[in-house]
Amino acid sequence: MTLGFETRWVLVALASYAVVSTAASLLLAAGLRSVLARLVSRSPSPRTTADRILLLRLLPCLFGALCAVAASLAFALFEPRTHGEAVGWPFVCAATAGAVLLLLALGRGARSALASLAVGEVWSAGSPARTPAPLAAREVEADFPVVALSGLWRPRLVLARRVADACSEEEMQAMVAHEMAHLHAHDNVRQAVLTLCPDLFALLPAARVLERSWREAAERAADEAATAGDESRRLALASALVKVARLAVGPRAPVLPGSTLLRGEPIAERVRSLLSPPASDALDRSGVAGLGGSPRGAAGLALLAVSSALFAASRPELFELVEAAIRLGR
Q: Among residues 145, 287, 124, 102, which one has the least CA distance to residue 137?
């Protein structure tokens, strides 16, 4: 197969991304449980745990993207602008795999968007909620006791009417504070990033384990932020969780995009944590600091990674490796 310069340049980026991100995905899947155990045991707070799990999930994509940038730049710098060159079938297969990974991620994004539209229709059919929420909130008729913050750009609070009827004013305030904590932490955006990563890891069972660990950490972080170490708030949120969990017995949890108070999972650990005295570092709000020690540290790591990719692109050795991959099997 003979391809022109521009086509080969695009395929170099796709192939290098596919190969590197796939290798990183397999390594992450193989060591996931031990890495997660270390993250949870060594993180100072649930928010830091959630941030570090998010970074861990992004690693295959980040490594793949950096290598794609380096390989495509090296190809653009050193490859003569010839009319065409024969390429091998392994190179074409790798590039096709890269394209497939991107298309699958777009498909997951489309499904998530459709689910958001469905929630929007349900939300529009509800009535204004009797909550202290400082954002748009609706009560809806639902079998499952939904308490959810849905949407990325204009998040909205969706509340099942049976939850509003069952909970006291203090419990309602605690639940709203919990969802507002998700809003301030941009957890809906973070969850979308977890879902849309275009790599092989997203197709592996380990991805479900990592996403569940992230949700658990994010829920614990929102619990801590909502209660702010106040004992009465912690008791109110724990009581609300128990009531919602009892209402959830029987009905099947719907597939909801965004952050929800409860998806039908066990709540014993969350309730136990709320009823225990808060740790002195429980209210850590490091945010991106959890990713690199500080915002400046995270920026420094990003700058180092980009600089490394640019340096690699300037090396003829990388171009020779790319050329060998293109010619393999032709």
A: 124
- Residues 229-253: tens digit of each pLDDT: 788 999 999 999 999 888 888 767 6
Give the CB-side neighbour count of residue 251, counting CA atoms within 13 A.
18
- Note whether 81 and 323 are within 8 A (CB): no
DSSP track, 151-195: -SSS-EEEEEHHHHHHS-HHHHHHHHHHHHHHHHTTHHHHHHHHH
Question: What is the value of pTM for the model shown?
Answer: 0.84
Contacts of 190 (CB under 8 A, 6+ apart): 50, 54, 214, 218
Say if CB 286 and CB 48 are below 8 A apart.
Answer: yes
3-state SS assignment for residue 218: helix
The CA distances from residue 279 to 156, 218, 284, in Å, are: 31, 17, 10
Which tens digits make up the pLDDT trace of 307-317?
Answer: 888 888 888 88
Distance of CA 62 to the CA centre of its chain: 13
Q: Provide the 10 A C-beta neighbour count for residue 245.
A: 19
CB 54 within 8 A of CB 194: yes
Structure tokens at 37: 């155990």
